[in-house]
Amino acid sequence: MENIILSISCSCHLQSLSRGILFRITLVNICPSTDIGEVVSVFQSRLFELHTTRSWDFVGLPLNNGGVTPRQLAYGSDVIVGIFDTGIWPESPSFSEEHGMGPIPSSWKGKCVRGENFDPAIACNRKLIGARYYLTGLEHQLGPLNSDSEYRSPRDWVGHGTHTASTAVGSIVHNANYYGIGQGTARGGAPRARVAIYKTCWNNNNVGTCSEADVMAAFDDALRDGVHLISASFGRAPPLAPFFKSQADIGSFHAMQLGVTVVFSAGNENSAPNPSLVQNVSPWSISVAASSIDRTFPTKIVLDANLTFMGESLVISQVNGLLADAGSHFINRICSPDKWNNISASGKIVLCFSNVGLVPSELAIAAVQKAYGVGLIFAEPLSRQIPDVDDIPTVHVDLQQGTRIRNYLGLARRRPVSVQIIPGKGVIRKSPAPAVAYFSCRGPSSLSPDILKPDITAPGVNILAAWPSRAVNNNGPYMEDTASEVMMAGGSTKSSDPFEVGAGHINPTKAMDPGLVYDMKTTDYIIFLCNSGYTQDQIALMVRPGTRTTCPHSYASNSNLNYPAITVSNLQTTTTVKRTVRNVGWNRNALYFARATSPHGVDVYIWPKILAFSWFRDEITYYVTLSPRKVSSGRYDFGEIVWSDGFHNVRIPLAVCVNNTDHATAAAAHQWS
């Protein structure tokens, strides 16, 4: 019988954290093991995949800004951010000590561990204060690590972790650029914050792969070490496991109980514009969608020295070659390595289309490289164009430009067509932005549809940041330095669909002074789990030891969770939900007035319409009544509620699906098994 990898959480663990132990046991051992008194639960460890300078200015957090508060000028001083990713390249200037950086906070209990090409005495400092790596789970599931394409240490081979860490908390690096592209000052959103790396994800045949067992171990260490915030850019595509069977959700629940915010990426998928693909959906964590910034990297494509097309790329020097259609080198014009017809493309720049065979750019690059081509022109929908640092020079064009290039080649018949790829230097404020990235996973949540996911958007396209010198790309959105507040902050969205952008695009400056916040406690999340049909025994698997998990006698809709969004996935009759807000603004006697934009076909009534606060941190509850005035349309409609005191505009989105046809029935709570 094949062995199965199982991670077993034990009730006897240090500092009451859910310390996991990894076992390789046969199927016949499973049942007897669950009779052991110290074993809380048995989980099969699954695999996650990674979600693969100018940006902070774009979101309103420039390095030098008049009128900022002392808190903003601190740039995240002494905040400790834990990065769960592929490791770090410590020699990058992004991880050098900031001038005047004080000693490591006394609360820090972590360490830098030694490993392959990683000496803690050299790698770590007052900026990079922690570095660990986790490999036991991955090697149990996939076999020994390939030492030719990885480091058995916190050192980053893939590059994703280095890029993510520098984007979030990288030190200030002047005159940063990628071979002249994107020239400027590179820095993270919180350049004075400290960083601790937890290498949970590894290069597995050029795919970033993470074991759940290793992720669980990293959560235990990070919470014990004393991080203030955790960033993780990995997940699994739907169907999603119930929360009590997901180590990432359990770990983030423990973090929430200890006051540590966990920020996940919403997920990256080629089919992401389809609904309900968002991967990280727990209400006690923040799920961030990826959006573009207002910077492009224009590149000229010149045919026969006289016909010019514009694409986008990170090509750093001019490339010359002959134009070739994909059909000359690939079966059925499908640019995939397994479709190469063994005809060499040496000296040629190949034109490929993403919609022929539904190939992503990574596959087309590998195919052209296998065919010995010198470059690739990749035609795809406009919303999918994401320039990258590729193994061969690659220019992204839209389908219209790609069609014109192909038609020109056809008119030339058998005459060779010369191609010049001429790079630019980057252009700022030339593209409509922000716009949700094509690959960013959308809602609604397939697991908890009455909770809006993703929560917010942050730049995740065309971000130039630190990268290992052995190998620039990354599509993991960031917002770690403002995560604990941004969920409650007001600000208008630039898209009509909250399932794409959540509450809107990140605004760090306004997040520092949100005015009102929507607070939630452990008991609120336990009631949420009860309402979702989880048993008390199942909930007990998720919480820290000693936490009461008693469910109420009657169940309410999860729309009543005090979330900074109102989502009703099954509105059949008039329904009232409540929210409680806390005054954290500078005016202790603040007066807030309500205004609402109703979803199509739904009447919205708010009571009271005026919130009169008497002191700082005063809390007031208000009620929102939603009444359907149409029959079911089978779709969500959207609106918003805004509370304003004349200075703060605290906005929450409304997402409502009317389902009041005669044959409609109430959705029963699902009993997980």
UniProtKB/TrEMBL annotation:
<keyword id="KW-0645">Protease</keyword>
<feature type="domain" description="Subtilisin-like protease fibronectin type-III">
    <location>
        <begin position="560"/>
        <end position="656"/>
    </location>
</feature>
<dbReference type="Pfam" id="PF17766">
    <property type="entry name" value="fn3_6"/>
</dbReference>
<feature type="domain" description="Peptidase S8/S53">
    <location>
        <begin position="76"/>
        <end position="469"/>
    </location>
</feature>
<dbReference type="GO" id="GO:0004252">
    <property type="term" value="F:serine-type endopeptidase activity"/>
</dbReference>
<keyword id="KW-0378">Hydrolase</keyword>
<dbReference type="Pfam" id="PF00082">
    <property type="entry name" value="Peptidase_S8"/>
</dbReference>
<dbReference type="InterPro" id="IPR034197">
    <property type="entry name" value="Peptidases_S8_3"/>
</dbReference>
<dbReference type="InterPro" id="IPR045051">
    <property type="entry name" value="SBT"/>
</dbReference>
<dbReference type="GO" id="GO:0006508">
    <property type="term" value="P:proteolysis"/>
</dbReference>
<comment type="similarity">
    <text>Belongs to the peptidase S8 family.</text>
</comment>
<dbReference type="InterPro" id="IPR036852">
    <property type="entry name" value="Peptidase_S8/S53_dom_sf"/>
</dbReference>
<protein>
    <submittedName>
        <fullName>Uncharacterized protein</fullName>
    </submittedName>
</protein>
<dbReference type="InterPro" id="IPR000209">
    <property type="entry name" value="Peptidase_S8/S53_dom"/>
</dbReference>
<dbReference type="InterPro" id="IPR015500">
    <property type="entry name" value="Peptidase_S8_subtilisin-rel"/>
</dbReference>
<keyword id="KW-0732">Signal</keyword>
<keyword id="KW-0720">Serine protease</keyword>
<dbReference type="InterPro" id="IPR041469">
    <property type="entry name" value="Subtilisin-like_FN3"/>
</dbReference>
